[in-house]
Amino acid sequence: MAVYKANALVLRRIPLGEKDKIVTLYTREYGKLAAVAKGSRRTTPAPPTRTRPCTPTNCN
After folding, report:
1. Sign of CA dihedral 49, 53, 54, 57
2. How far apart are CA 2 and CA 9, in angstroms?
3. Contact criterion met (CB below 8 Å) for 18 and 41
4. What is the pTM of this model?
5. Among 48, 29, 41, which residue's Cα sits nearest to residue 9?
6. 30-53 pLDDT tens trace
7. What CA–CA distance (Å, rounded) separates 27 from 57?
8. CB-CB contact of 47 with 60 (8 Å)
9. 37 within 8 A of 20, measured Cβ to Cβ
10. CA dist 30 to 37, 43, 51, 56, Å?
């Protein structure tokens, strides 16, 4: 499994199981990537804004 550190733009997200998502990202350095966002579908008071489409985010 490769680890990337880059700024990215979220293109789309797909539910995976009960609490996870597959997020498609675009970075200048690596192009189009798919990543699993573990625990991002938990029920919390505020919706997770880092995985919304067309949102810039920092990937670590």
Report:
1. positive
2. 18
3. yes
4. 0.74
5. 29
6. 999 998 888 877 666 555 677 777
7. 10
8. no
9. yes
10. 18, 32, 18, 15
Chain center to CA of 58: 9
CA distance 60 to 44: 22
Q: Please write down the HEC assignment for all residues of the chain.
A: CCCCCEEEEEEEEEEECCCEEEEEEEECCCEEEEEEECCCCCCCCCCCCCCCCCCEEEEC
Structure tokens at 58: 């920092």
Reading the block at residue 4, the tokens are 């990337």
